Amino acid sequence: MVGHPRVLVVHNRYRAVGGEERSAELQLQALERAGITHALYERRSADSGRAGAALAMLRGGSDSAGLAEAVRSLRADVAHFHNMQPLIGPRGLAAAREAGAKVVLHLHNVRLFCAIGVGERDGGPCERCTGRNTLPGLRLNCRGSLPEAAVYAAGLSLHQPKLLDAVDLFVAPAEAAADALARRGLERGRIRTLAHYLPAEAFAASSRAADGGYALVMARLSEEKGVDVAIKAAREAGVPLRVAGDGPERRRLEELADGAEVSFLGHVAPADMGELLDGAAAVLVPSRCHEFFGYSALEAMARGVPVVATALGGLPELVGDERCVALGDCCVDACGDCTNCAPEQDCEFGRCIPRRCTGGDCGCSPAGGTGTVGCDAGAGGVPGEAGGPTTEEPVRAVEGSGCFCASVAPARSNGLAWLGIALALALLASQRGRI
User: Fold this and answer.
1) What residues contact 202, with CB distance under 8 A and at least 6 apart?
2) Domain that holds residue 226
3) Which of 13, 184, 256, 349 is the most buried if burial means most Cβ atoms within 10 Å?
4) Residue 33 burial (CB count, 10 A)
5) 171-175, 286-290, 391-395, 410-414: which has the highest mean pLDDT?
6) CATH at residue 268
7) What pLDDT is attached to residue 148?
């Protein structure tokens, strides 16, 4: 390859605009500024009916011939994929490679394994679906529709080998994201970490947060984003809250915010985001899932606005541990320390659970009853075998070596993680007189 590569950016747009659309747009802008020959091949989920999307998911994509032609027309050296489901799929990856391009798959979530992509359930992170075992997503009906859950479980598992064979390099936006993917079965050595960026014009010359009049959430209004946590925190702290974003949870969140000083702004264009951030005293990122990066946190820091986030995924890596609060319930105090767990218990995501053993020679057994343990894959265990993680409910493997606890109660979706955020907001308010 001589000189600059020719790059085809490929993306299946979601029905609701989110961080992946922002990432693809910024990549295109960067390629333009660098003078690199490029083009965009885009499919839109909104243009496909439910039946068409389901068929594409089961087939591993649709119109792979059109994608191959786009590679040949550009004479692309690299096909850089963002979201590929459901219309592009593994068949699209393979078609791009067969047409002569190196294939890069940019992973913004765990959609390779998870039917809903975000790896969240019962108010906390979920890692039940690993490798080609997508049955937990079907059994728990994570899509909220059994036909959809069946389609995703089958499609993800069936076409995973083709996907792995077609990709030359996987990219994740944070080390925590790469580790999360590896825990689910993606070979860690195939993943390169590449953080998201913002253009120079997104940065403010100085911070205006000291004069800010409200706290701000910028997120898709869906359960895993934890916007209800921000509403409860703002109400408790007596701080005005503005919510920028739209999504399926909007009506429920508006009902929850009734009587509180909360404004729902809907989708805010990137060009208008700077002005909104300049009026904010703090940005809240109360995610319930292992957020791979968190564009809203990055945009806030670029404008000099303090960020308070849950301590999950890539958020501590991005904003610092000291700016993160524990996701959990009433056994976690405002400093993120467990107050209720007994000596024989561990605190996991703010819940008291049976203590995990710490060595690989602990004699762990498959999950039986409450309090039983099994070694996780990091300690050499094999899923479904004695001494290894079981796939039966309600088991959640935890990261790191050692063991995981089985048959513990599910996380409560209405926990009190808002308490730490509320106290942080109250502290800001007291320092400034009033936000």
Assistant:
1) 274, 299, 302, 303
2) 202-329+415-432
3) 349
4) 10
5) 171-175
6) 3.40.50.2000
7) 94
Comparing CA positions, the residue from 50, 46, 60, 114 lying closest to residue 89 is 60
Taking only the tens place, the pLDDT of each residue in 182-206 is 999 999 999 999 999 999 999 999 9
C-alpha span between 392 and 37 (Å, rounded): 50
Cα–Cα distance, 33 to 269 (Å, whole number): 21
Domain boundary among 154, 175, 193: 193
- Asked whether residue 336 is assigned to any structural domain, the reply reads no
On whether residue 334 sits in a domain, the answer given is no
Tell me which range, 235-244, 288-297, 394-403, is most confidently predicted by mean pLDDT: 235-244
Q: How far is residue 408's CA from residue 394's CA, in Å, rounded to a whole number?
A: 7
pLDDT at res. 268: 92
Please report how the helices 89-98 and 50-59 are oriented relative to each other, as an axis angle in degrees rounded to 10: 50
Give the mean pLDDT of 322-329.
Answer: 76
Domain count, the chain: 3
Q: Are residues 362 and 267 in the same domain?
A: no
Same domain, 52 and 169: yes
To the question of pTM greater than 0.70 for the whole model, the response is yes
Quick one: 150 and 213 in the same domain? no
User: In the numeric block, which tokens belong to residue 272?
Assistant: 């208008």
- CB-based contact 165:95 (threshold 8 Å): no
69 burial (CB, 10 Å; 0-12 / 13-18 / 19+) is: middle
Give per-residue pLDDT as tens, 297-309: 999 999 999 999 9
| Secondary structure (H, E, C), the chain | CCCCCCEEEEEEECCCCCHHHHHHHHHHHHHHHCCCCEEEEEEEHHHCCHHHHHHHHHHCCCCHHHHHHHHHHHCCCEEEECCCCCCCHHHHHHHHHHCCCEEEEECCCCCCCCCCCCCEECCEECCCCECCECHHHHHCCCCCCHHHHHHHHHHHHHHHHHHHHHCCEEEECCHHHHHHHHHHCCCHHHEEECCCCCCHHHCCCCCCHHHCCEEEEECCCCHHHCHHHHHHHHHHHCCCEEEEECCCCHHHHHHHCCCCCEEEEECCCHHHHHHHHHCEEEEEECCCCCCCCCHHHHHHHHCCCCEEEECCCCHHHHHCHHHEECCCCCCECCCCCECCCCCCEEEECCEEEECCCCCCCCCCCCCCCCCCEEECHHHCCCCCCCCCCCCCCCCCCCCCCCEEECCCCCCCCCCCCHHHHHHHHHHHHHHHCCC
